[in-house]
Write a structure and sequence with these properties.
The termini are far apart. The chain has strands at about 20-25, 30-35, 65-70, 80-85, 85-90, 105, 115-120, 125-130, 135-140, 155, 165-170, 175-180, 185-190, 205, 215-225, 230-235, 240, 255, 265-275, 290. The strands form five sheets. It has a five-stranded antiparallel beta sheet, with no helix packed on it. A four-stranded antiparallel beta sheet has the order 3-1-2-6, with no helix packed on it. Strands 7-4-5-10 form a four-stranded antiparallel beta sheet, with no helix packed on it. Strand 8 and strand 9 (about 135-140) form a beta hairpin. Helices cover about 0% and strands about 35% of the residues. It has no helices and 20 strands. It has one domain: DNA gyrase/topoisomerase IV, subunit A, C-terminal (Neuraminidase), CATH 2.120.10. The chain is an all-beta fold and about 290 residues long.
């Protein structure tokens, strides 16, 4: 047993960190707070842990957007930020090396927008933004010039009316596939090389053919066949699937049914499990997903 989670909760990130490492905690309003690993209470494997909000001095209206674990802050690495309305920003990781009580502004977020995700990069990654209406754009991180901390950023994707960014991935150079999932439990794997490199700020290309059958896209993750995925529904159902069970198909397809949904339930979140280390002896194999007609 690794830890006990509450009902409808799940583990999304697991970090191997030394006592002197930092967890950078980013809020939806664009602030960053520092948490030293040695400040996190050490607990047994069967304990429930403590909420991050109880370990930090967060304002009442501050919601955690994402966390990043770092051991040091080299000039050679960057943080890439993405907001829901398509803004991205690149800032040297070293700009966040001086912790301050109460946190600081990490990115200026416009009224009505929110910080979606933050990734650490080494200067040579490509960035994939995916939207809820089924569009995506892939561009080199070099296409975004370095900016200071308290800046707004630049256009990552030009959104169509009613659309928003639902996920950002910084793609590993070895390729692999992108697993895209829509709210009616429909998903597909598409080779990374089908997402041609474009210039930052364009309207992008189709990622998943959204329809009434699929519902809107909730996320897109770079995956390997040996990975697992956790799917979480609005009603609190959680299912684990094997990535290799999801067929590979082209960008402008709808994909396959990943699980049965009851009533008005829909998928709200996905999380990747790297290398299916959590296989249980004697567990039922994941059934082949059904094609969407």
């Amino acid at each position: 047993m690794g830890m006990v989670t509450k009902d409808n909760d799940y583990v999304e990130h697991l970090y191997v960190a030394s006592a002197h490492s930092y967890i950078l905690v980013f809020t939806e309003t664009g602030r960053v707070h520092w948490l030293k690993v040695h400040e996190i209470p050490q607990m047994g494997p069967a304990s429930k842990g403590k909420a991050i909000v109880n370990l930090l001095n967060l304002e009442k209206q501050e919601n955690v957007a994402t966390t990043v674990a770092v051991r040091d802050f080299p000039d050679s690495h960057n943080l890439i930020f993405a907001t829901e309305k398509g803004t991205i920003k690149k800032t040297q990781l070293s700009a966040y090396s001086n912790p301050r009580s109460g946190g600081i502004i990490a990115i200026k977020v416009d009224e009505g927008d929110r910080l979606l995700d933050v990734k650490v990069t080494d200067g040579d990654k490509t960035v994939l933004l995916a939207t809820r209406k089924g569009f995506s754009i892939r561009f080199s991180e070099k296409d975004a010039r370095p900016m200071g901390r308290a800046t707004r950023g630049v256009r990552g994707i030009s959104l169509r009316k009613g659309d928003k960014v639902v996920s950002m991935e910084t793609l590993e150079p070895e390729g692999g596939e992108v697993l895209s999932v829509a709210e009616n439990a429909v998903g597909k794997r598409t080779p990374v090389d089908q997402y041609r490199l474009q210039s930052r700020g364009g309207k992008g290309i189709i990622n998943l053919k959204v329809s009434d059958k699929t519902g809107e896209v909730i996320g897109a993750k770079q995956v390997k066949p040996e990975d697992g995925m956790i799917l979480i529904t609005q009603d609190g159902k959680i299912i684990r699937i094997a990535v290799e069970s999801v067929r590979i198909s082209a960008r402008s397809t709808q994909g396959v049914k990943l699980m049965d949904m009851e009533g008005e339930d829909r998928l709200v979140s996905i999380a990747r499990l790297s290398e299916r280390e959590d296989e249980v002896v004697g567990e039922e194999p994941t059934p082949e997903p059904e094609p969407i007609n």
